[in-house]
Amino acid sequence: MMNKNYFQPQAETMPYDEIKKIQDEKLVKQVRHVYNNVKYYRDLMNEKGVTPDDIKGIDDLHKLPFIKKDDLRQSYPNGLLATDIKNCVRIHSTSGTTGKRVVAFYTQNDIDMWEECCARAIVAAGGSNEDVCQVCYGYGLFTGGSGLHGGSHKVGCLTLPMSSGNTDRQIQFMMDLNATILCCTPSYAAYIGETLKEKGYKPEDNTLKAGIFGAEPWTEEMRKDIEKNLGIKAYDIYGLTEMSGPGVAFECEEQNGMHINEDHFIAEIINPDTGEVLPVGSKGELVFTSLDKEAFPLLRYRTRDICVLSREKCSCGRTFIKMTKPLGRSDDMMIIRGVNVFPSQIETVLLNNGYTPNYQIIVDRINNKDTFDINVEMRPEDFSDTPKGITAKEKELQSAMMAMLGINPKIHLVVPNSIPRSEGKAVRVIDNRKRLGINI
Ligand code: DLL
């Protein structure tokens, strides 16, 4: 094997039969842990007539019930917790389909495993303890900031915990502290690239060498643009809060699909309509089972991300299976400015505030920034209001949306009955980012 850098070479390059053996053993243990500690999932297993004794290894995985976003909503906040809450050291959270968010719990071991996954991604992008890693994913409930931050620590990089936003300050720190690795959403990376250009910097003026970008769909064209404007190699990283956060899968130097950390997660592809398991190489919905998580272990979680898996040999020497970028979703979730948004959340806010569910969401990407507008039909009492009064109502609704979604849409109150009614399924979302080739 060529001399490559891996964070955990033994795990990352083990032959498939060893991976399978590890998955077999861990799955048997994990099913027992979940069955014994999570009533909600135990009931699902009982309903399906399956017991832990039926699961002898990954060939039996298909016998287990799926778990879906809706199950997480029903178990809010801690119905899927598999350990005493006193063993937990942190939570993160992401949007649910309506008002209730998903809350993911972590023990210290869960955090360590997650950060190691992120460290693998950083090392695969050429990172070492000589690097300066600028983390401008959001910190807080979102997993992006903490995940890459923890990974950067494990690698021993000097970590710049910038969080997102304040682009002038990002650029100042990047330049003054000689950042070498940039971690953020691809659209923010593109925006930083544009801003640098506007300020008169050339790509060679910065010390960056690599970027680790994910949390939202992006295209190969965007990758080329970012690489050119920043003078770096841009790596994709994938993950979801339900499985811990970023680092479930990461790109290596081949930049051709992301290796899934198979010693911690089992990946399956299913037909989203029937739930049937499809062979490797088929396009379908990605389903994950977390093998090591103690606090919030999910068995057969349906991600709703559509992708293809491949076990082709990779020139980087890693043996973990690869996934393509998500090629779309099997539900109506949108990712706007890196934040997951469901139309049902918007509907909940409208109904809670006395509006009818006649609305239209218009999303676009202009100068690498997502725009987010919602047209809403006025309530009868708004209709006779003055322009100033209407602006105040729009602001009020915007605050309510912000509280639910975590991002600010622009609200436009429009006259009643002006939003086209549909005879079939209402067209609630107009996502103009599709014209950029983004797999929404
Ligand atoms: O977005 C975790 C993350 C943070 C990943 C930072 C990468 C970097 P959630 O907020 O729970 O978690 O959103 C998960 O985002 O199901 C995908 O639909 C989408 N997603 C994540 N990574 C990618 C990617 C984080 N590289 C949802 N490309 C997932 C496209 C992505 N979509």
List keywords for this structure.
GMP Synthetase, Chain A, domain 3, Rossmann fold, single chain, 12-stranded mixed beta sheet, 440 residues, binds 5'-O-[hydroxy(phenylacetyl)phosphoryl]adenosine, alpha/beta, 12 helices
Q: Could you give a short description of this structure?
A:
The chain has 12 helices and 20 strands.
Write the layout of secondary structure elements.
Elements (H helix, E strand, L loop, with lengths): L8 H4 L3 H22 L1 H10 L20 H6 L13 E7 L7 E6 H17 L7 E4 L7 H13 L2 E4 L5 H10 L4 E4 L1 H13 L11 E5 L5 H11 L2 E8 L4 E7 L6 E3 L4 E6 L6 E2 L4 E8 L10 E10 L11 E2 L10 E3 L2 E3 L1 H10 L6 E8 L2 E9 L2 H4 L3 H19 L4 E5 L14 E3 L9
Parallel strand pairs: 3-4, 3-5, 5-6, 6-7, 17-20, 18-19
Antiparallel strand pairs: 1-2, 7-8, 8-9, 9-14, 10-11, 10-12, 12-13, 13-14, 15-16, 17-18
Helix pairs in contact: 2-3, 5-6, 8-9, 10-12
The protein binds 5'-O-[hydroxy(phenylacetyl)phosphoryl]adenosine.
